[in-house]
Batch of 2 targets.
Target 1
Amino acid sequence: MSVVAPRMAVIKPSPSMAVTATAARLKAEGVDVISLGAGEPDFPTPDHVVEAAVEAMRRGETRYTAVNGTPALKEAVIRKFRRENELEFEPKEIIVSAGAKQIIYNAMMASLAPGDEVIVPAPYWVSYTDIVLLGEGTPVVVQCDESTGFKLSPESLRKALSSRTKWLFLNSPSNPTGAIYSRDELAALGAVLERFPAVHILTDDIYEHIRFDGRPFHTIAQACPFLKPRVLTINGVSKAYAMTGWRIGYAAGPRELIKAMGTVQGQSTTNACSISQAAAAAALDGPQDFLAERTKAFELRRDRVLSELAGIDGLRCETPEGAFYVYPSCRGLLGKIRPNGRTLDTDDDVALFLLEEARVAVVQGSAYGGSPHFRMSIATSMNNLIEATQRIGEATAGLR
């Protein structure tokens, strides 16, 4: 009898992490690979945040904290939601975890029962559906293609809703597409959800500060205040503040749900790192001016990559509105034959081809439920991006 639980048969390792690990292994073997797989800013954590962590250690803040987060960080989170999102919360409506992913996991473990359905617009972040499956829920994937700007429409939402729907997931700006929901678009979704009072909404706003072309940001509890009692608003410091390794995510939501999520966390990891919590409070309360500078750098990279991709036969790419990815369609490459005689039948084949022939690591669109595409992270230097797109162009020119 296997020691591995049957539930492991329905989930898979993170494809983006797998690509990053493969690229690292090839580099260690001396292969010149440009990795565009990881969703991790290439900027340093701001100095004042690092100093806040050092000072916390010197003050002896190296012990257990309250499971749901320190009072100082909870207050900083409350101020952030008030200042940036026009939302008011109390400390008992806030939870702090070891990353936004843990918050999603806690929420699904605390709320799902077998048979509950979770609507997940695709393309989606790779972990959404697997976390739902771990919670014994049923992902209901709704395809959102270029015709809708990769966004869920009210009509598609209405068709997907049923008496078994427990949650709707939203992610704006989106990983992997960079799509951003406007206030009007959120209001239109809210009008549908108003008629389904048993449905809760999980909104993943982790890329909130990385928006291009001057686009504003709205979260659904802000755009639809009547939904606030059933919205879990998730955010964190990983992307905006270049703090991926610090592992701090936070969320605000209904008190009953937050309490249950804290119980799950209390029987798994307990509190997030005390030092990281002090650093996160400094990030949220400290200077924010550097965010615009870093976002502009991402925007310039986006524009250059789009320009380079436009000259490659077989690829077509919508303009991302935020986050730090581009998500080109590779439909025009399918059916073509590699120099080794293999046919490119899927975007998985395309990703493998680009790794082996162009020495560029990307993540296949099937990992995000959105084929035929692949995701390229632009969280690397402009030189790397120019070299990578040139390699892709040269490799695809050799297809027949």
Target 2
Amino acid sequence: MIECVSAVVDGKSEAFRLTKLMLEEPRPDEIVVEIVGVGICHTDIVVRDQHYPTPLPAVLGHEGAGVVVKVGSAVTKVVPGDHVVLAYGSCGKCENCQKGEAGYCLDFFGYNFGGSRSDGSTPFHSEDGKRISGCFFCQSSFGTHALATERNVVKVDKEVPLEILGPLGCGISTGAGTVMNALRPIAGTSIAVFGAGSVGLAAIMAAKVVGCTTIIAIDINEERLALAKELGATHTINGRSGDAVSTIQRLTDGLGVHYSLECTSIPAVFRQAVDSLRLTGVCALVGAAALGTEVSLDMNSILFGRTVRGVIEGESVPDTFIPQLISLWKQGRFPFDKLITFYQLDEINQACADSESGKVLKPVLRPGQKR
């Protein structure tokens, strides 16, 4: 057993508490990682509040980055001392995984939200032997150590600051990948991003990288809109100042945008993202709403060649996409680190509150930091 300190949520919407846990030794295909930095994602908060029913008590966290300390007997991808980013889990065996579409793994929910390994076991236990749900996104990285699988670790360049890389495992890859992997806009096209949080801002940076020439950011936070302009948006719209759809129509000569992203999880905003499309335009839904959330759309609008589609994890293959984003960061073309605010592990509840209030964009916990 490996002794670690983790942030545990015991019940629905309760505060995280730091506690000492025992982490099992890695099985043949597993890897123990000492966490250097872990981002807090909207999905962590959604699960804390039980909008997705991961069993509690649980160790959450799914944007971890750290140093490999132990590997299972069958692992060949990494060795102790390697720097890694932890991505999402998938089976690797189903039809979609075999096609390179691991984000749509037929058991995606089980591997990422089930709270256990596929055999029902969990690697975390309290000191008195109580079972604690783990394996969240095949990592549960809100703590000093995480247990991942060979499939969801991505080896990265040791010259890059490891503490900033965790968000590439989910939120940043989701925003950037939705543009670069799913929508694939050609140079010169237009895109509107509804929600200038970390996912939306990553999408804006990616839209600039691929050559979109009209990049519109929509939010209700003026500071976020100012940052969106700095990161590549050509126009910004405050959703409280008027009709975003009519403003987008005006900015696009009455045609609408080629592409839109909905990052807020708000049905009314989703409707705006669809209504802002031109004929044959595509709206990508990436915001994670509570199960059962519904939206109303104009069927005749969709009839005229418009497409609405969901996108999971930016449709990225982490082993190739995360290094690509790191290369763009090195060149100064994808400055995702501007979104990050650091916290210590024992400040996790404050970090969550600051994220929910909009005070910060991407909180990153540093478990190894001391006061």
